[in-house]
């Protein structure tokens, strides 16, 4: 590890030779993230995924877009109300 000199305003900066921006580990992590993004079901500009949902009361299965009304947005809230 090298230490660069600083002045009263800027403290000394420590530069580690083992912590490189373009190391093989960082490039693998970036590639893995891009691969996961590519495999997602939802993509900008494409149709929404129509996943299957189960109603809590009677365990009946349906699709999310079955609840959409003509010319009205369908809003899904995945939060909790406490």
Automatic annotation (TrEMBL):
Keywords, alphabetical: Oxidoreductase, Selenocysteine, Thyroid hormones biosynthesis
Example GO BP: hormone biosynthetic process
GO molecular function terms listed in the Swiss-Prot or TrEMBL record: thyroxine 5'-deiodinase activity
Domain of life: Eukaryota
Keyword field contains Oxidoreductase: yes
Pfam families per UniProt: T4_deiodinase (PF00837)
Keyword Transmembrane belongs to the record: no
Function: Responsible for the deiodination of T4 (3,5,3',5'-tetraiodothyronine).
Family statement: Belongs to the iodothyronine deiodinase family.
Record's protein name: Iodothyronine deiodinase
């Amino acid at each position: 590890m090298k230490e660069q000199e600083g002045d009263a305003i800027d403290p000394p900066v420590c530069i580690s030779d083992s912590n490189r921006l373009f190391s093989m580990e960082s490039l693998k992590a970036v590639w893995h993230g891009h691969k996961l993004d590519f495999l997602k079901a939802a993509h900008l500009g494409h149709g929404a995924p129509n996943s299957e949902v189960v109603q809590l009361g009677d365990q009946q299965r349906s699709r999310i877009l079955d609840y959409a009304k003509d010319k009205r947005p369908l809003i899904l809230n995945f939060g909790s109300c406490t």
